[in-house]
């Protein structure tokens, strides 16, 4: 996102934006000039949230904007609808500093135009008297845009190799080291990643991408992201309607890459270990089958009861690898289960963790930043649902009950006991546009997770 979208307020000539809460509408309107009241009446505004209008002044360029908004003062989305409504130019808020709303202003100008001719729309620049917040806001906006861009990109243009290239670019930018285990080399060390990805074409071979950065003396933190670049469902093939959006099944990897970039840009005092198991769940003669018993890096065996429950398989090997270096904290992001969407819908990712302090930090940060999540139980009573008659466990229990929970319980078996770990089952997609959040790929719980890491390791 271009840095021209935010600028320090040095008294430049700019159009003002007045934000009025619906509860204050009547009082505000009663204090306005006849000209303003006439303009409001002409546009039939009633003071409901979302009302907005250009208000005339004394000259051609002497005009201002009005927005009726019921968002909390701390919401990043308070003025996010305005960039798409206003012409290019300089703006400032008439009543107070934008604060957190700077983020929504920038993201309100996000466009995914990889496959279309970019429109030359010009910049809407917001002035702020808090210039110290500009750089951080732009970094958060860029990280969110990165997630959106990656998820919106078609699978023909974004496979395992392209995810590797994203990690390689991060490594070059921040002086990190990159290690990639690919193709048949995965068969012994990462057998579940290999099994899921082996049916893909030669140019889309599965791989585990690992990036390490930071002082080895600092606390170690692992960030893991599910990178299924396209999910056909495998031999348990999805219907067309279920496959339509499966370009987004690498949304967890997109979150992990963006979070890693934020960590390194902020110079947090931690030893970062980023792990992206990147595969395409394809169909071919060598595809893994229902009923196959899979080996794992952890030494457990898994009866594969559903080839469309592949994300937890590749994450299992990656989580095991992350735990081998004894991290203080593991965070994983994954577009893991439809059951999570049934339970909480698209906007609210479930948070799974046994660590009370970590749960409190993540939930609190999410509430403060307008980046919410909802804690779901790692209910031990459901662990028996993973029982297999022929292996140590199944990957997907029959019946579908508590699907998000049993998926998280599966992952927990690959995390070292006593290690602080949180699993976020993100949707990575916004089915309906909201101010500052267009329909398409989107980031969930990214800003909250970064805030927790910043609070712990700044």
TrEMBL record:
What is a single cellular component term in the Gene Ontology annotation?
A: cytoplasm
InterPro entries registered for this protein in UniProt:
Leucine_aapep/pepB, Macro_dom-like, Peptidase_M17_C, Peptidase_M17_N_1
What keywords appear on the UniProt entry?
Aminopeptidase, Hydrolase, Manganese, Protease
**A GO molecular-function descriptor:** manganese ion binding
The record, for PROSITE patterns, names: CYTOSOL_AP
Lineage, top-rank taxon, reads Bacteria
Q: Return any one Pfam family short name.
A: Peptidase_M17
What does the record list as coiled-coil region(s)? none
Using the record's annotation, list all stretches that form the Cytosol aminopeptidase domain: 306-313
Gene Ontology terms: biological process:
proteolysis
Q: Which CDD domains match?
A: Peptidase_M17
Q: What is this protein called?
A: Leucyl aminopeptidase
Q: Which organism is it from?
A: Sphingomonas gellani
